[in-house]
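Q: Structure tokens for this one, please.
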Amino acid sequence: MELVIDFPGGARVDAHFGPYDVPTDQPPQGGGSGSAPTPYAVFLSSMGTCAGIFVLGFCKQRGLPVEGIKIVQRVDRNPLTGLASDVELEIQVPESFPDKYHAALVKSAEQCLVKKQFESPPKFNIHTEVK
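A: Here is the predicted structure, written as tokens:
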């Protein structure tokens, strides 16, 4: 997969891949206009949305309604580094959701590829090239 990152102005840094554009910005106190989430916020949101894809798939495969289901993600950050130290994903289900599927919902969310990537981090090769 190849992504192209560009700098459209101000503190914006956007990613482009396939037919998609992912805008990012910094908040005003960071020199941006706050027109889009920060790259780190997009990264963090990928954990919850990835888990959500697996929860959605689990429900769809079993004909279970997803109305009223939410995933609330809480991130504790190390105050010295600013990096995530603990991530909690709370899958909230309505009272009508069958109890027998609660544990299976958790197992489905645990299949998230973003979570698995954390467990097996990639190697980085950062370099410059004159074009």
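A few notes: The chain has a mean pLDDT of 96. The longest strand covers residues 84-92.
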